[in-house]
Every structure is written in C-alpha cells, then in structure tokens.
Amino acid sequence: MDSLSFRIVNSKNMLRYIIIVSLLFNVCCGYIIFFKTDVCQKIIYKIGFGENPSMVNKRKIEFRCIQGWENTLYKMNVDADIVFFGNSITYESNFQQVFPDLKIVNMGCNKDIIDDLINRAFMIKSVHPKKIFVMGGINNFNATPLDEFKIKYETLVDSIRIYNPGANIFLQSILPVNPTKGVGTIYVDCVNKIKDANEIIENISRNNNCTYIDLFSAYQVNDTLPQKYTRDGLHLYPKYYDIWADVIKPFVE
Amino acid sequence: MDSLSFRIVNSKNMLRYIIIVSLLFNVCCGYIIFFKTDVCQKIIYKIGFGENPSMVNKRKIEFRCIQGWENTLYKMNVDADIVFFGNSITYESNFQQVFPDLKIVNMGCNKDIIDDLINRAFMIKSVHPKKIFVMGGINNFNATPLDEFKIKYETLVDSIRIYNPGANIFLQSILPVNPTKGVGTIYVDCVNKIKDANEIIENISRNNNCTYIDLFSAYQVNDTLPQKYTRDGLHLYPKYYDIWADVIKPFVE
C-alpha cells in the first residue's frame, strides 16, 4: 500500500471509530429521552391520542394534598349549607361573610382546569352540603374546543352528582373577561366562545336536573368585563363580588 | 482519479455526512436532556449540592392545593383548640372523636417528609389554634442522617412558631416501627436511630420552649412496635390510637 492510500484508509478508520462512538451516544440519549422522560407520551398527546402526561403526573403529585384537604374537612364533622366549588375566582370569594347565618365552605383552588375539578370532586362530600355552587372552565378555555368543553363539563357534573346524590347543584356561568387587560388578553379570541360555553352549561343544567345561574349577564358590558371590575382582566376586585352575591341570593337562601 | 480512489473518497464523504448528522443529533439530544429535563440539577444534587429537583418541583406543583386547603379553613372562620400536624400517622388519627368537647383540626398529609411539613407550616395559622401537636420525621428517615434531621426539624419548629407566635407547641416523639412487617422493613436499620432522633426532638423542645411528648415509650416493646398494633409495621390500627390519646390527654385538656 502506498503512503496516500494508507493515510486515506487510516483516516477512514478514525472516522469509523468516531461514528460508532457517536451512534452509541445517540442510542443512549435516545433511550434517556424516550424512556426516562415523557417525550413519547407528549408526542402521542400532541397527535391527538392519550392524555397530557404533564397533567396526569401533576394530578398524581397533587392527590395526596387533596386527600389531606378532604380528610381535614371530613374529621371536622361539618354539615355545610353550601359548598362553592371552582378555580381561583371562587378561591378569592368570601360568601361566608355575605351570608353569615349559613355554613359555607369555599373549595376554590387556583389554576384549576375542568380536569382538576373532576379530579377532586370527591372532596365535596366531606362536608355533606345541601347545595353546591360550581364555577369552572375559564382556565385553559382558549385552548379547549367547545365539544371537548362540553364532554368535560358533563363529566364534572356527573362526578359531583355521584358523590353528592342528595345535594342541589347550581351551575354558574363563566364570567365575561376583559381582553385588553392582564391575563385577560389571552382570551382575546374567546369573547363569543364564552357565550357559547355558557349556553352549553345551561343545556347541561337542564339535562342533569341542575340549576343554571347566569352571572355573565350581571357583569358584561358589550359581552366583556368592564375594566373597573377586574384587577387583571379575569379576576374580580373584592367589592365586585357583591354583584355575584346579589344574583345568587335567591338560590342561596 | 482511478475507480478505487474514487470509491474510497466517495465512501469517505458518505461517512462524513453520517458523522455530521450523528453529531447534530447528539447536540440536540444533549440540549433536550440538559435543558429540558432536570438531569443537570439531579447531578448537582447527587454530588451533594443543591436541593433534590424532584422534591422542589413536587412542592411547586402541590402548593396551589395547599393554598386551597388553607383558604378553605381560613374562610370557615374556625377557632381551633388544637391542630394535629403531621404525616399519614396523624392523617389516620381522629382525636376529634376522642375529645368531642374541643375543636380539633387534623392537618395530617400522607407521605409528608419534614420538608413538606415545613412547606405547609403556614396553613396552621388559618384556624388560630391554641395548641399545636406535631409529629413528623419517619418518612424518608432511613435516608436522612441525624445531623440533617436535626437541622430540618429545627427549621420546622421555627416555621410553625413564626406563623403561630401565641400557640403552645407540643413535639411528639417518632413512634417505634416493626421492622419485620410491611413498609416497616425499610426501617430495619433504624431501630436505635429512632431513639436518637427522639432525643434530638426532646432537645429541640427544651431549647425552643415547646413541650416534648414521649409516645415512643408508650408503644415500644424492645424498642420496636409490637405486631398487634400495626397494619404495616408503621401505621397503627385505629383502636391503638387510644394509647396515644391516653398519653396526650393531660396536655390536651
């Protein structure tokens, strides 16, 4: 073999070694990515199958705290008149102050999407409420098609009913948003969709022996939430919960 | 160029392309593994620096539920006589039944390690308790060196005190385990270590104006938990909470 051929073959061998090492490294990385993370399940979810693995994982992690929350209430031997069940908009309410003669339990949880509400619907029974006021759906609403919204909301109502067969269930409409302010801006394309969702909630109420409460109309001006009511386009300033209290008063008492 | 040289050069080019693609793939995989997962932080944690990223992430995810739990209690306007604060062993207790004339709130949470208890110590203040009974430390105890245990337990007591400056704090000893049964078996090397940890808790009580309650002695036979008391080597059968109730009775009333 002459000197040139030798150099070519030698450098070819070197390339071969590099490629083998590189391919082995690829296989290791691929193994870690696909089996040690939830990339696989995320791809399955993205193409329209399976549940969002981050959500499933999150719900698993949260569940022991929800159990603790339920257990605390259960062991306090409370007989509630009303449970308010929902996301941060419910969390920030304080209807116990407005209706001091009733035993009211606030079960709001920040950032809850409908899946989260379904996940913890079981906890309502811990206080044996006579009435359950539900508000949910605005979190992740922009990313939720209305047919999916309908299915999930029905599942939520079923879950609440199963655990509380004797309670009266009140489904409160989604509030309007202000799409020019704070987090409200992510709902800029949802102004009319919220009205459609509320029609769906009203229909679900009718078909499931629940009472629909239209809060949307009490707050909206041109189908949106006036700036003065809201700190971020989505959440109410405390004093504007009075409008809510006025609307539900006939159902509460 | 003759035919042989051409083939060598050509195959060399082909190898070059493969190696470039392979290296690019390596870079992408490396990027995903190091920046889109917590591998980096896990390595830092393994070599003794930083906090366990899984724990940090878990606590972040759980926090909104803990907030909801706290908010529910706060808005119920409860003035508690006693809060029982701890892990699943507290969760499974029902001292409200034993002391029906007192307002008792069970704040047990399954699987809580001391870090978790520190994380949610703020929630105790929601019910303005006169007395706080704490039990914690057995979860992850086998993997926790005693000096670390001491630091964390002191932090826990500080956290409880900061949020509840007027309350009396009672630190209850860790219970003995049965290392031949169920989950108790993972504590097979901890029989004496539990006694040492209880001495640490007793010292912390003395130095922090808390009251130490020795439950260990009330349950132990040869430093372990007799089989008949425990369903899994760690948790008590409901009826054997009576022993606990007898020990704490003088402090409760």
From TrEMBL, chains A, B:
What the entry lists under Gene3D superfamilies is as follows:
SGNH hydrolase
- Tell me one Pfam family matched here: Lipase_GDSL_2
Q: Does the keyword Nucleotide-binding apply?
A: no
Which InterPro entries does its entry note?
SGNH_hydro, SGNH_hydro_sf
Key words of the record: Membrane, Transmembrane, Transmembrane helix
Name all SGNH hydrolase-type esterase domain ranges: 90-242
- Annotated membrane-spanning segments are 14-34
**Which GO-annotated molecular functions does the record name?**
hydrolase activity, acting on ester bonds
Q: What is this protein called?
A: Lysophospholipase L1
